[in-house]
């Protein structure tokens, strides 16, 4: 099977529906028949290298949350279906009209509020949850109030007054009803606790993130070698989806080309890669719940002098940002460092062509606290992790973005993957 027939095969399920909203990551294609391109067939399955987060690690996270609850003067932390719930407990559940809640008190054992008919299933999950054997479960029948049980659970711990921290992804209807059902408690934002834990990565978390970034970059390189002018951007994204499966991890990456590369999050319009045009890809794979977020930009053919200049400026801006990502610096200083390079090169001022912030926190969520943006005076600490993604977007012409993830150290940001060297050799020789 030649490469063109491979890309047109009906066995390649579309990795993303047109019009996919920002922040959504579709699943990669699950099946493929035919001969893989050599560069993708050569990818090593690295799934065995990923070691899951243990219950002991989650117990340490809960202990840290209790410390921060005490520091913040909060009586407890309430979470519903969210990434934070998975982070602290390993429990994965969605949100519906029936509230499930997990409450970590500053002192004492955690408790759960869940529907009556879910109790047995929830007890099964407690076998792999920190302190599960001591976790109380309060159940409610369909004509009863789950919110009143939050108040009862707190009261049983002697917590009738004080501040109850609500995790930021909690639906308003839950938080509002909890506030009414707990008249002695003040409902407050729990982000200082949840982000206070999640922003600082452990050695194991960093190991998983490095693996996710390494695998993503290898997938990008393999797809770049297999790609060519004449291919649609959808076909290229599908190609990367198959490469992620070959590597052993779920993943997705978007692809934009030509004038649409000047739109940071792309376009729903059909696109065909042409010789001498910019190609820009973004996103990555997920390893044990930790995603990579990498962007690469290149040209199949000969880039123009303007393209080369823009690439060099973005490359320098990315390096300047990494150098500024030192423990002790304010988060905004990283954005300022990159923006200054772009402005001094004649592509400013302000957000004229570099239209977004420099980067976002990254961990179990692709975007999480805190953010590398002007005005954010959060002091960086070692082992915080961020994207480093400056870009220049020239409307109606092209855009260039270079993105690698990095960890904050005392001497600056350490990129998990090497900077892209050029527009024609984006992965080096």
UniProtKB/TrEMBL annotation:
InterPro entries: Creatin/AminoP/Spt16_N, Creatinase/aminopeptidase-like, Creatinase_N, Pept_M24, Peptidase_M24B. The keyword Protease applies. Residues 207-410 form the Peptidase M24 domain. Residues 61-200 form the Creatinase N-terminal domain. GO terms for molecular function: aminopeptidase activity. Pfam families: Creatinase_N, Peptidase_M24. Keywords: Aminopeptidase, Hydrolase, Protease. This is Xaa-Pro aminopeptidase. It comes from Terriglobus roseus (strain DSM 18391 / NRRL B-41598 / KBS 63). The lineage of its organism: Bacteria, Pseudomonadati, Acidobacteriota, Terriglobia, Terriglobales.
């Amino acid at each position: 099977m030649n490469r063109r027939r491979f890309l047109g095969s009906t066995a390649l399920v579309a990795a993303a529906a047109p019009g996919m909203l920002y922040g959504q990551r579709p699943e990669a294609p699950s099946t493929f028949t035919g001969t893989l391109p050599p560069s993708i067939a050569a990818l090593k399955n690295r799934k065995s290298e990923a070691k899951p987060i243990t219950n002991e690690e989650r117990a340490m996270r809960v202990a840290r949350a209790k410390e921060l609850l005490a520091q913040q003067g909060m009586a407890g932390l309430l979470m519903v279906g969210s990434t934070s719930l998975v982070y602290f407990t390993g429990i994965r559940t969605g949100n519906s009209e029936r509230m499930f809640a997990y409450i970590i008190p500053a002192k004492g054992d955690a408790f759960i509020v869940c529907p009556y008919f879910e109790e047995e299933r929830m007890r099964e999950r407690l076998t792999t949850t920190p302190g599960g054997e001591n976790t109380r479960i309060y159940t409610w029948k369909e004509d009863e109030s789950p919110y009143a049980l939050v108040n009862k659970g707190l009261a049983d711990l002697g917590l009738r007054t004080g501040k109850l921290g609500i995790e930021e992804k909690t639906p308003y209807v839950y938080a509002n009803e909890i506030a009414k059902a707990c008249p002695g408690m003040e409902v407050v934002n729990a982000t200082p606790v949840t982000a206070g834990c999640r922003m600082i990565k452990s050695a194991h978390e960093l190991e998983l993130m490095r693996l996710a970034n390494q695998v993503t970059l290898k997938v990008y390189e393999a797809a770049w070698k297999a790609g060519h002018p004449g291919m649609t951007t959808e076909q290229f994204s599908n190609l990367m989806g198959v490469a992620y499966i070959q590597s052993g991890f779920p993943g997705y990456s978007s692809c934009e080309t030509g004038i649409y590369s000047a739109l940071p999050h792309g376009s729903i319009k059909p696109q065909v890669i042409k010789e001498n045009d910019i190609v820009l890809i973004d996103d990555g794979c997920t390893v044990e719940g930790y995603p990579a977020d990498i962007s690469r930009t290149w040209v199949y053919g000969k880039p123009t002098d303007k393209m080369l200049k823009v690439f060099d400026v973005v490359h320098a801006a990315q390096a300047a940002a990494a150098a500024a990502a030192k423990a002790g610096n304010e988060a905004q200083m990283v954005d300022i460092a990159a923006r200054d390079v772009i402005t001094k090169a004649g592509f400013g001022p302000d957000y004229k062509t570099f239209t977004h912030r420099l980067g976002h926190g990254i961990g179990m969520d692709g975007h999480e606290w805190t953010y590398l943006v002007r005005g954010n005076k959060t002091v960086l600490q070692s082992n915080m992790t961020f994207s480093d993604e400056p870009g220049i977007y020239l409307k109606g012409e092209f855009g260039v973005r270079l993105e690698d993830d990095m960890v904050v150290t005392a001497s600056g940001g350490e990129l998990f993957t090497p900077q892209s060297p050029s527009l024609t050799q984006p992965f080096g020789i």
